[in-house]
Amino acid sequence: MTVIQTEALTKRYGSSQVAALADLSIEVGDGVTGLVGANGAGKSTLIKILLGLLAPTSGSASVLGHDIRADGEAIRQVVGYMPEHDCLPPDMRCIDFVVHMGRMSGLPPAPARERAADVLRHVGLAEERYRLMGGYSTGMKQRAKLAQALVHDPALVMLDEPTNGLDPAARDDMLALVQRIGHDFGIPVLVTSHLLGELERISDHVVVLDGGQLLRSEATQAFLADTGVVLVEVLGEDDAQTRMGEALAARGLVCRPRGTMIEIDPVEVEGAGDDAAAAALAHDRLRDLVRDAAADLGVGLVRLQPQTGRLEDVFREEVPA
Ligand SMILES: Nc1ncnc2c1ncn2[C@@H]1O[C@H](COP(=O)(O)OP(=O)(O)OP(=O)(O)O)[C@@H](O)[C@H]1O
């Protein structure tokens, strides 16, 4: 199901010649969609336009079937939004704030209190809910912001940099929460990050922006597909890695050292039928050549593993240095 659709969406701030978003056409569906790009790539601009908070310069978009220009209010009623920056009143208790946000979204008093208690439990703030938010850690503030985005049982959530300022453990917890929202609760999620690799594990689909332009929009699996490159680690005398590299080169393989490993480019095979069959044959041939080289040299083969792609590689491939 398509939950967000944009068509040639462009945004210029003021009289700026540089577009913060340029001709962006994307579709977002169910599950977790990662919106990835460096600082200034246009992620927050896109989210604000989708919420009807900011008017695009040109182009069109719809969210859950609502037009962003005409139906901003209807969109904000059914979408949960977690803004990037700190927006929590420091002198308010978290529970009161989340109840208030539920009331603002149209919940009657009793259901607002019930929902607030539920979402605060889900985000792990049950015990801290009566404390003033001014005394919260960054991790707790991020959770409170997430709770207010969920309190009115939204049909879609947009989370702007939910892991900002978190240490690695708190970041993992937050990512797990986001994944639960998209998969266990079944609420479609659009989540942004400037850390390219971060959303790989939790998103079903990734949209990559660079300087306001779309670099790629693809299933996460496609980013992480097998590259055909193989990494090898050998065990032996001090110069085992060098000797192994030379032996592989002598067998016609293109390789280079990478840390304690040797990285070997894929071999070409001809007449193997479809792409999958050719890739399988290429892998088999490469593995045979590596095993033979190790056996001839008398070095131990510690590891022989395919290298999969990473989101960072998209920038290496497509953005000129
Ligand atoms: N209110 C504004 N007025 C003028 N320029 C703006 C405004 N808001 C954003 N910009 C510019 O638009 C571009 C995109 O900014 P945006 O905040 O959307 O990027 P982002 O990907 O969300 O980055 P960040 O994570 O740093 O917020 C940047 O060049 C930014 O300087």
TrEMBL record:
Domain of life of the organism encoding this protein: Bacteria
Pfam family, one: ABC_tran
A Gene Ontology molecular function term of the record: ATP binding
Chain ranges of the ABC transporter domain: 4-236
Database matches in Gene3D superfamilies: P-loop containing nucleotide triphosphate hydrolases
Keywords: ATP-binding, Nucleotide-binding, Transport
Species of origin: Serinicoccus hydrothermalis
Name of the protein this chain belongs to: ABC transporter ATP-binding protein
InterPro entries: AAA+_ATPase, ABC_transporter-like_ATP-bd, P-loop_NTPase
Family: Belongs to the ABC transporter superfamily.
CDD domains: ABC_DR_subfamily_A (cd03230)
